[in-house]
Amino acid sequence: MATDTLEVSDLESPITIEHRDALIYMLTEAAELEHAICCQYLYAAFSLKQSAGEGVTPRQLEAIERWRKIVLGVATEEMQHLALVNNMLLAVGGAPRVGRPNFPQRGRYYPPAVQFALLPFGEPALRHFLFLERPEGITLPDAEGFEVVGEVEPIMTSEDIAPRPQDFATVGHLYRSIEEGFKHLVERHGEDWLFIGPPRAQATPQSFHWPELTPVTDLASALVAINTVVEQGEGPRGHWRDAHYGRFLEALGEFLEMKRSDPGFEPARPVLAAFVHTPPDSEGGPLVSDANTARVLDVFNVAYEVTLHVLARFFGHVDETDAQLKCLADAAVYLMITVIKPLGEAITTLPMGPEHPGMNAGPSFEVFYRAGFLLPHGRSAWIVIHERLVELDAYLSGLIVRRQAPATLVPVQEAIRRIAGMFAEHVDELHTRRIDPPVAWLRLDPSLLDTEKS
User: Fold this and answer.
1) Could you tell me which residues are beta bridge partners of residue 275?
2) For the chain, what is the total number of helices (H) and then of strands (E)?
3) Which residues fall within 8 angstroms of residue 125, CB to CB, at 6 or more apart?
4) Position 115 pLDDT exceeds 50
5) What is the C-alpha to C-alpha distance for residues 373 and 115, in angstroms, rounded to an integer?
6) Strand, coil or helix: what is 13?
7) Cis peptide before 111, with omega less than 30 degrees from 0?
8) CA 427, CA 385: separation in Å to the nearest integer?
9) Distances (CA, A) of 172 to 181, 189, 362, 391
10) Of the candidates 422, 228, 197, 222, the residue with the CA atom closest to the CA atom of residue 315
11) Beta strand pairing status for 271-273 and 105-106?
């Protein structure tokens, strides 16, 4: 068992960061990592069973609820970490980053040992989470199936000007390198040189109701933001009992004990990480062949796309009013709670198709735009986001009338309409703008109302 504290000598040497561009590169990589880690946690939480009718005892269901709370709590903090990294990016003149490569990724975009895949809650998922969240100085293998592939990049030196991927051993190692980069650049050039971003661009505790969401405007606030990320993840410089690492370690211990008592205990639904169409930057996976499941998975991914557009606009805003910024922040939260979460949970109850008997699908968190989700011009950005919400509403109408989709879609559609209305209130043209269904499948066939056919 790992010790609760670590010595400074156990830490990896920080990565060299000599230029603003290298700092922006590393912060962009950190944003992608926080995003990917968060999605992994959400997938595991969505996979958990929700009632005794799914083959678990009341005592087991109590444990499942504890684990769900742990995983969702950690995922929420990862969302906060993504916001903090974007605050740091904006503070030094970078663009917000809410995109990332698609799942699964095994050493293609990041150091060979830093890999991502969507796993249902269970021992492999928990061991993978522990590997990602492990404090510096703790040697721990990743879960089976995450074997290291490829070779590490050579370390950058003070002679280099072009940024490139760097090998970091842990997430904490990455952030400690970013911390040293901030300190070095301030020492070399001064705070006024480094912190050039407008203070109004910063997310604040009022934006998303996170007290630890520090606006970054100078070195001191940048270090506070980094410390928040590190302390919540691996613990305050190695004291990890209450951090993500410690919480997952506790969950793994309880899970293994319950498995020893009942080897047949399965807390998660039988889900597979699958696609409707394989993204070009993904390493692939099984495809959903059940038509109804595929449609619901498409709804999830489009809702996720809209959420990323909203977040990118919030962090990349230019001339939005305070009321519009509040609308963007509120819409992002509402999308996560009233759309993403119920859809993600519903998908894990839907069948993959005959090629995978007995297996259900899982939310794939597909990223459509590799270049990012920033819509740069204010008025058009709001129109595009609203338009996508209206299209999603129309598509949901087509699914609901088929009477085969999960009941969850009805309140999800209501939530989508409320969020679309929030955007319409802030752009005059949207009050009168009418968006027709863009393609034929949105024009409902009256025969779909025939219950015998549906």
Assistant:
1) 287
2) 13, 4
3) 40, 44, 119, 143
4) yes
5) 23
6) coil
7) no
8) 11
9) 14, 26, 29, 41
10) 197
11) unpaired
* Amino acid in the structure at residue 387: E
Q: Which positions ≥6 away from 416 have C-beta within 8 Å?
A: 303, 339, 389, 392, 393, 396
pLDDT of 7:
39
pLDDT tens per residue, range 377-434:
888 899 999 999 999 999 999 999 877 789 999 999 999 999 999 998 887 655 544 4
Distance CA 394, CA 291 (A): 18
Mean pLDDT of the chain: 87
Query: Quick one: CA dihedral 263, 269, 270, 273, positive or negative?
Result: negative
- Burial category of 397 from C-beta neighbours within 10 Å (exposed 0-12, middle 13-18, buried 19 and up): middle
Give the integer Cα–Cα distance in Å for 176 and 13. 9
CA distance 146 to 111: 12
**pLDDT tens digit string along 346-367?**
999 999 999 999 999 999 999 9
Q: How many residues would you count in the chain?
A: 454
Q: What residues form DSSP beta bridges with 306?
A: none
pLDDT of res. 435: 43
- CA 169-170-171 angle, to 5 degrees, is 140
Residue 115: phi, psi to the nearest 5? -130, 155
**Rounded CA gap, 204 and 90, in Å?**
13
Select the more confidently predicted residue: 5 or 167: 167
Between strands 271-273 and 360-362, the pairing is parallel
What letter represents residue 258's amino acid? M
How far, CA to CA in Å, does 384 sit from each of 280, 326, 375, 391, 430?
Answer: 24, 18, 9, 10, 10
Tell me the CA distances in angstroms from 37 to 31, 68, 128, 424, 427, one per residue in order. 10, 16, 10, 33, 35
What is the helix (H) or strand (E) element at residue 95, kind and residue range?
none
What are the φ/ψ torsions at residue 376 (nearest 5 degrees)? -75, -25
* Maximum pairwise Cα distance, the chain: 74
> Residue holding tokens 């909203």?
310
| Both structure tokens of 429 | 């043209």
pTM for the full predicted model: 0.89
Residue 451 has pLDDT above 70, yes or no: no
Positive or negative, the CA dihedral 364, 369, 372, 377 is negative
